[in-house]
TrEMBL record:
The keyword S-adenosyl-L-methionine does not apply. GO terms for molecular function: hydrolase activity, acting on carbon-nitrogen (but not peptide) bonds. GO terms for cellular component: extracellular region. It is found in: Secreted. Residues 60-275 form the NodB homology domain. It comes from the Bacteria. Keywords: Signal. GO terms for biological process: carbohydrate metabolic process. Its main location: secreted. It comes from Tahibacter soli. This is Polysaccharide deacetylase family protein.
Length: 275
């Protein structure tokens, strides 16, 4: 198993071409992955293989994730500068309409969402365009669709735009600083409870904000607390394929716009993983 896990951000809209718009890239990448004869599978299947609890054949497979949980993950929206944007969810539906459900029978996307409403509201006003595009009212419908899973991207992303003080002296803007019990409970455990209350299912996966992975969370707190919280694995940004030897608390991913910026860049990642 050498599965590249690809990651997109619904708020990355700086134009309407591949290099400047993750929605354009996502739709193009679905077709490119399919054209290469690769299978798209749920990222939870990759975790099952890492944990040794399933024996699915995951050769020549790809998994898809997206971060932050903006409305752009699920709803088509009119961007004030760049016009109508196709959501990741509707891009999946369009792919199925073009190719048929049999083409990628396990088609799936995992959306890592931020839990706290006040934090999402602040990010919407200060980092987006202030149109209330960081809501949670689509989470349950997305989860129920069978095409999207809602998972944990922390309580408030420890985002630098937040003016509220972090607990126990937490330094805003740096998830590496989530380095003790109180901070971890604040950022991860309470997010588990909140998201579960909204989708009637406990998240089983966590994604480190900013890709900031520290030894306390990876090697101590998550191995101790993860099972009790319902967590099976956590995801970073290591830019290598996931294998059966992957650290379950630091599963690597490739980030669109960082680890690849063009169709050719993605094709190289996919070719290397398939070797």
């Amino acid at each position: 198993m050498r599965v590249p896990i690809l990651t997109y951000h619904g708020v990355n809209i700086a134009g309407n071409d591949y290099a400047t718009n993750d929605h354009v890239a996502f739709a193009a990448d679905l077709d490119a992955i399919h054209a290469l004869g690769l299978r798209i599978v749920p990222v939870a299947w990759v975790v099952d293989a890492v944990l040794g609890r399933a024996t699915r054949d995951l050769a020549r497979c790809v998994a898809l994730t997206c971060d932050d949980g903006s409305n752009f993950d699920y709803h088509d929206l009119d961007h004030p500068q760049h016009g109508r944007q196709k959501s990741f969810y509707n891009a999946l539906l369009d792919f199925r309409a073009r190719h048929g459900a049999h083409a990628q029978p396990d088609l799936h996307l995992t959306s890592f969402v931020i839990a706290e409403p006040a934090a999402r509201d602040a990010m919407d006003r200060l980092c987006l365009v202030g149109r209330d595009w960081m809501r949670e009212d689509w989470w349950r419908a997305a989860q129920a669709s069978g095409l999207v899973a809602i998972e944990n991207h922390s309580w408030d992303h420890n985002h630098p735009c937040l003016t509220s003080p972090g607990p126990a002296g937490l330094v805003r803007g740096d998830f590496h600083d989530v380095g003790d019990e109180a901070k971890a409970e604040f950022e991860i455990a309470q997010a588990q409870d909140y998201i579960a209350s909204r989708i009637e299912r406990r998240p089983s996966l966590f994604c480190y904000p900013f890709g900031h992975v520290n030894d306390f969370l990876r090697a101590d707190w998550l191995p101790r607390r993860g099972a009790a919280l319902g967590l099976d694995a956590a995801f970073g940004d290591g830019a290598t394929p996931a294998t059966v030897d992957t650290d379950r608390w630091n599963v690597p991913r490739y980030i669109c716009g960082w680890h690849w910026k063009s169709p050719e860049g993605l094709a190289q990642i996919l070719r290397d993983a398939a070797k």
